[in-house]
Every structure is written in C-alpha cells, then in structure tokens.
C-alpha cells in the first residue's frame, strides 16, 4: 500500500510540476479518524500530505461539477470514481482533454459506521495493516478483518478497476460479477409488497432532508434540484412524510442509468438510511432491458437519452 | 363494485382524434376521474404520476399515441422508456403493479378510451383503496394546494 501511495504522490507531483493540471484532487488525513477528507493540491509541495487508504469515503468525481470549469483537473480515481467521471464526460459536464486521471485499483472502502458500531467509543487512531484494521479507543485496542468491515457497496462491487484513465498505478484486481451486485435487490423483490413498502417507508421517513446524499453524489449536479423548486410546485417536496418519500423516489429515479453504485450517498447520510437498494434496482433494469452498464464504455448512449421503436412490444396492450 | 376508485388520467391531446371521444373526455367524464391534458405523453413527468398517488389517487392511466404516430415525432418513445421504468420502481417499493396503466391509442380507435377507462376502473375496484404513497394531507384538512 505504501508503494502505491508513493507512486501516486510521485505522479501527482509530476503532473503539477510539469503544469499538466492546475489542481489534483485527492485525500488528506481528516480531523476525524476513519474519514479522510478531500484535498485539493495546487502546488507540488502539497502532495506530501496526500493519503490513500480504505478510509477515503468520498467519491472524488463529485468535484468535477463543483470546481471551476476552466481548470485542468487531475483526479485520483478508484473504479467507481473513474466510471463517474466517464459518465459526467458523456453528459458534457467536463472536457475530457482537461482531465488527467490517475487510476488506482480499489480494494474497498471501510465502512466507518460499522467500525463505530463495533467499538462504540471514541476512536483515537485507525490504521490499515495488511488485511486488518487496527483501531485504538480509550479502553481497548481492536483488530478487525478488513473484508468484513467494507462498506456494503464495496462488498458487492463489480468493477474495482479504474476505466479510461491516463495512468494506472498498482496491480489490476480481478473483476467482480455484475450480477452479484444485484443479489440484494433480487432478495428484496421476493418480499411481499407490504414488507417492501414498510421497509421503504421506514427508510424514507427517517430522513432529515439535509441533502448530504445529494452533495456527496457525483451525479447530482443540477443547479436547481426538484425539491428546491417551488414556483410552480409540481409535486409535494416539503418536509412531510409524502415530501420525503417523493425525495427518495425521485432522487433514485434521476439516477437511473447513471448511478455508479459507489455508495457515497449512504456513507454521507447522517441517519444511516439505506438508499442504494433503489438505485441498484434501476441499474439492474438498465442492464437487463438495454444492456447498459454505467461507465462501461464511451460510445453507448445512456438509456434515457435514447429511445427505440423496438421497445414497443413491452408497452402496447 | 366495492368502492369507486379515484383515477387520474393523463391524456395526450392528440391521441383522441375522434371529436366525440374528446368531447366525452372533456365534458362527460364521471366525477371519480380527473383529466389532465398534456401536449404530448413526453410531457408527463414521473413527478406528476407520483403526485397523483400522493394526492390519493387509486390509479393512474397514461394515454399516449402509438409509436410512429406521435405529433412531435418521438415524444411518446422517450416517455415510454421513462414511465415504464418509473412504474417498475414504484412496483419495487411496494405499490401494486395494476395501479399504473398505459394505453397507447391510435387515432382511428374510436371509443377505445371509454373501454380502457371502464376496464381500468373495474380492475381497481377489485383492489382495496390505495393507502401506499397516499401520505399527503388532504386539501380539506389544510394542506397546501
């Protein structure tokens, strides 16, 4: 892991020194353990602070639409970040020529909430040593297996390797099975409609509408979100049970054929609300019906940007 | 019939070419139907459908032109993909599948809309009243309109 970090740092330093990019987006150690924070390197000297480990929670592609469009940006990309970048480039949100992507095959992101639940105390330090996570709390030292503490989205990740990047650092990992990613949605579908609705209701109505999921999501970049749009108000979007349900349904629906299943929304959620079961379902439909795997290639149009007469059999009654 | 279902009909303004049909829709629609005319089925946002259910509709009927007959060439094709996927999502979170129906009506199918509405109403009457997603406070009880 250290070799990988050194290699990333060298590459980031090189592209900054040679003036290939204006800013490199990576991670630095945060004020909280278990959560590295996004870091914008403008000078070659900044690079020393760069970290790279399983505690890097955010999806860095988010900053593509939030930074100044004139800048040339370097991004350190895991599998999900790189697919998000590709989708954003396809949606003409950024010029690919102005990006320099440093790809790093990803071994998964540690779910900070799972660790916190197990330890139940303030965490003084957290370290990754090989396949283990070593946590120190005031009372005790903990050791966890890394594979068990991964975030749900990472456990079922199908594409750990970055795609369409300029340089890949580290060894490529075996690709997962795309269908395995959908096991959970299949299980969910087997439940009765009452149970499904009850689950949805509980998850949706705990929402405090802080919109952390929206801010963490690389695909949520509308300048005005439908929930903030009040004149005219096309649908209930207030902080009421129905408004919150609408937020969850439509937020997910706007991700159809775009969500890269990075799980950044769930990790950002302060209420620990599960949301990826909705977007996974939509992604599965996109794969089954239109053969579209998000970020898989550059030339295939997103399913909702296209339409075809061949769809007709499924609709006409 | 156990109860009279409340139905919201989103109708593309071009698919009922027969004047008698359109007149019936505009003036003689039974009171438990709400007609929302849209310029094209492509205008029907998933939000509208959701809004109808939240406002207490038991079912939503979406009527549009058949493929290749769209007044705007391809509005209905885009709408079909989106709205079909949206109905799948609603089914996934527990809404009965039968509560959303699509009727793609050709301009020469005179009287078809009445048949569609009647059969839809009959199907919905067999189901209980919709309580899922119908979470909005009714206007009579002081909700914003």
SSE inventory with pairings:
The complex is a heterodimer of chains A (317) and B (145).
Chain A: H1 2-17, E1 23-28, E2 37-41, E3 50-51, E4 73-77, H2 79-90, E5 99-103, H3 112-119, E6 125-129, E7 132-136, E8 141-145, H4 152-155, E9 167-168, H5 183-190, H6 193-205, H7 212-216, H8 241-253, H9 264-268, H10 276-290, H11 312-315
Parallel strand pairs in A: 1-4, 4-5, 5-9
Antiparallel strand pairs in A: 1-2, 1-3, 6-7, 7-8
Helix pairs in contact in A: 5-10, 6-8
Chain B: E1 7-12, H1 19-27, E2 33-38, H2 46-54, E3 59-65, H3 75-92, E4 100-105, H4 112-126
Parallel strand pairs in B: 1-2, 1-3, 3-4
Overall description:
Chain A folds into two domains: 2-111 and 150-306, no CATH class; 112-149, no CATH class. With 317 residues, chain A is an alpha/beta fold. In chain A, 32% of the residues lie in helices and 13% in strands. In chain A, strands 1, 2, 3, 4, 5 and 9 form a six-stranded mixed β-sheet that branches. In chain A, strands 6-7-8 form a three-stranded antiparallel β-sheet, with no helix packed on it. Chain B has 145 residues and is α/β, with parallel strands linked by helices. Chain B is 35% helix and 17% strand. Chain B contains four helices and four strands; from the N terminus they run βαβαβαβα. Chain B has helices spanning 19-27, 46-54, 75-92, 112-126; strands at 7-12, 33-38, 59-65, 100-105. A four-stranded parallel β-sheet of chain B has the order 2-1-3-4, sandwiched between helices. The longest helix of chain B has 18 residues, at 75-92. The termini of chain B are far apart. The model of chain B has no long low-confidence stretch (mean pLDDT 86). Classes of the chains: A alpha/beta (317), B alpha/beta (145). Chain A binds chain B through residues 185, 188-189, 193-198, 200, 226, 233-236, 238, 240-242, 245-246, 249-250, 252-253, 256, 278, 281-282, 285, 303-304, 307-309, 311-312, 314-317, and chain B through 45-48, 50-51, 54, 66-68, 74, 77-78, 80-82, 84-86, 88-90, 92-96, 101-104, 132-133, 135-137, 144.
